[in-house]
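Async update (no meeting this week)

Hi team, since we skipped the sync, here's where things stand on the single-chain job. The sequence we agreed to prioritize is pasted below, unchanged from the tracker. I ran it this morning and attached the output directly underneath so nobody has to dig for it. Comments welcome in thread, and please keep replies under the output.
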Amino acid sequence: MESLVRSASASAEAVSRQIGAAIKPTILIAEDHVDSREAMRELLEAFGFEVIEAGNGRQAVSVALEQGPRLILMDVMMPEMDGFQAIRELRKQPATRTTPIIALTAMDGARELALHAGANDFVRKPVDIRRLIGLVNGWISREHN
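Output:
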């Protein structure tokens, strides 16, 4: 795991250098389970990202519009506004229309629903760390090419 963290952290740093950013790319984690959100935050910070958080879909829309993250990780099953609704709402807004969104869930059949709602990609829970970090780095790099 330590070598994986070092390798992905170097990848995140290379992405930052490639786009000329002096600051770390900011990622919004929208997840209602505090433990899952904290684990994801610690993981992404270890890989060199800055993290902001939201505990439900409504809050995710608000935080995304206020803080303009470079990428959003969206759990699809949340209270107040589910991730599908939040994705659709974010796609209606000019400020977040093209922000990469990766949907996260353990729900069967959610991939197609998430992509139809406007997500760019999908990761099944439990999360494969290598796949997630690869997708995050890929979407952040693609955003600036």
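Quick observations from my side:
The longest helix spans residues 2-18.
Residues 2-143 form a domain with the Rossmann fold fold (CATH 3.40.50.2300).
Reply here if anything looks off.
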